[in-house]
């Protein structure tokens, strides 16, 4: 942790910054996995909405 002291004796603590990196475009198998996850999420939300309408 990086700490400085000003002329009044007040301490200022600064968090260490992580090293930056650039994101890479997802691979084909990662893209397929994202599609499968989105299908399941859509089905789950649609099920919740249908259950909410049927209960009310």
Description:
The chain is α+β, with helices and mostly antiparallel strands and 56 residues long. It has a domain at 22-56. The protein is 50% helix and 14% strand. The protein contains 1 helix and 2 strands. It has one helix spanning 28-55, and strands at residues 2-5, 11-14. Strands 1-2 form a two-stranded antiparallel sheet. A hairpin with a 5-residue loop joins strand 1 (2-5) and strand 2 (11-14). The longest helix is centred in the last third of the chain and has 28 residues, at 28-55. The protein is elongated, with a radius of gyration of 24 Å. The termini are far apart. The mean pLDDT is 91.
Attribute tags:
56 residues; alpha+beta; two-stranded antiparallel ribbon
Short description:
This protein is α+β, with helices and mostly antiparallel strands.
Largest sheet: 2 strands, antiparallel
Lateral arrangement of strands in the main beta sheet: 1-2
Count all strands and give the number.
Answer: 2
**Count of helical stretches:** 1
Which band does the percent of strand residues land in? 5-15%
Low-pLDDT residue intervals, each spanning 5 or more residues: none
């Amino acid at each position: 942790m990086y700490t400085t002291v000003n002329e009044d004796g007040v301490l200022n603590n600064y968090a260490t910054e992580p090293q930056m990196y650039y994101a890479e475009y997802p691979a084909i198998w990662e893209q397929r996995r994202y599609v499968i996850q989105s299908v399941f999420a859509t089905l789950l939300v649609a099920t919740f909405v249908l259950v909410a309408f049927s209960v009310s």
